[in-house]
Amino acid sequence: MTSTVRLLFFAGSSRTGSYNQKLAELGAKIAEANGIASTFADIGDYPMPLYNGDDEATSGPPENAYKFKELMAAHTGIFIASPEYNSSITPLLKNTLDWVSRVREPGPSGAEVYKTRVFALGSASPGGMGGLRSLTTVRQVLELGLGALVLPDQFAVPRAKDAFGADGHLHNKESQEIFKALIQKLARAAHVLHG
Ligand SMILES: Cc1cc2nc3c(=O)[nH]c(=O)nc-3n(C[C@H](O)[C@H](O)[C@H](O)COP(=O)(O)O)c2cc1C
To answer: For residue 6, what are the β-bridge partners?
Structure first.
């Protein structure tokens, strides 16, 4: 596909050995192997204080919120691998999404970036449901809260402890093909939106 499509992959966990980071890294690898330019990012490299309106009023968003907004803006499609915490989104992911939504200039605002990128969601969990329930919340934040376009398809890796091989690929080849199809769909959607 000759286009400006660039996909960003990141996870809502910065834990060492995070299964969701493994999923996001695998996504970037699959995209590259299929000729789709992609970036994997660790949101742990963009630490931000817990959102507080007083801090924002005094100092504005933290520097890393600007940096992460720029990273998102440099990509046309974004895949988020979301861990499930008590059937919901992680504080780390919500805090990151919230701070980015508060960034205004320079360049497009965070709000504009959310509205002009296409998203796809996945999750990985040691449990049997693969963290799927967290995605309802993530989808709500992105679609209803931020006006983003989120693909209806989503991908889950249950029993994540045993799901990844040493090379980062999924042992279950059928499952990996489903993931690949989602990534290709994300790239097509980004192409339609951005050329
Ligand atoms: C506070 C908390 C709540 C959790 N709740 C769930 C849950 O509702 N469903 C689930 O499948 N796993 C749950 N887990 C387990 C996580 O899926 C597991 O820690 C996973 O490894 C987190 O993702 P990561 O590997 O990407 O860091 C929870 C973990 C924590 C710390």
So the answer is: 37
CB-CB contact of 77 with 5 (8 Å): yes
Cα(73)–Cα(42) distance, integer angstroms: 16
* CA separation for the pair 174, 3 (Å, rounded): 28
Q: Is 126 in the pocket of ligand 1 (CB under 6 A)?
A: yes
Residue 54 to residues 16, 21, 92, 115, Cα–Cα distance (Å): 32, 32, 19, 26
Structure confidence by residue, pLDDT tens digits, 29-86 = 999 999 999 999 999 999 999 999 999 999 999 999 999 999 999 999 999 999 999 9
Neighbouring-strand partners of residue 131 = none
Q: Kindly state the average pLDDT of the residues 144-172.
A: 98
Per this entry, what is the length of the chain? 195
Q: Which atom of ligand 1 is nearest to the CA of 130?
A: 11
Which one of 3.30.413.10, 3.40.50.360, 3.20.20.300, 3.30.420.40 gives the CATH number of domain 6-194?
3.40.50.360
For ligand 1, whether the C-beta of 164 sits within 6 Å is no
**Token pair 């890393």 in the structure block, residue:** 64
pLDDT more than 90, % of the chain: 95
